[in-house]
Amino acid sequence: MPDLTAKKKRPRWYNLSPLNLPIPGLVSIFHRISGALLFAGLVWFLYLLDMSLASESGFARFRAVVGHPVAKLALLALAWSYLHHFCAGIRYLFLDIDRGLDLAPARKSSYAVLAVSLALTAFVGVRLW
Questions:
Q1: Structural element, H or E, at residue 28
Q2: What is the DSSP-derived secondary structure letter of residue 12?
Q3: Structural domain count, the chain
Q4: Nearest one of 120, 18, 112 to 76, comparing CA atoms
Q5: Could you list the residue range(s) of the whole structural domain that residue 73 is in?
Q6: 92-127 exposure pattern, b = at least 16 Cβ within 10 A, e = fewer
Q7: Averaged pLDDT in 10-residue chunks for the chain of 129 residues
């Protein structure tokens, strides 16, 4: 018979890693993250828009800011968040009308959302740089 005190001394390990989620769960988490990035990036994007429309010197400042590699990377992150949120939103609209609820179609649509959003982001990245 095993000793109960030895069993209680074992460390508890809770696996909270999102990498162990199925692919539809990852798409759901990325959908939330992309929505939060869009919300946070909206302030910066509106600031850039206001700067670019204010005057000629404001537009020159806008071009200088957007020409910086860090700003380009931030714009690329905003582009990914928009494209992923858009593609995942279409997937969720289909799920709302009971299309693709079974396991195999749900996985295929999740992979499609990731592939399409990353491909479109790569296309935007090439055009942005």
A1: helix 23-54
A2: P
A3: 1
A4: 120
A5: 24-128
A6: eeeeeeeebeeeeebeebbeebbebbeebbeebeee
A7: 61 66 92 96 94 95 94 94 97 94 94 97 91
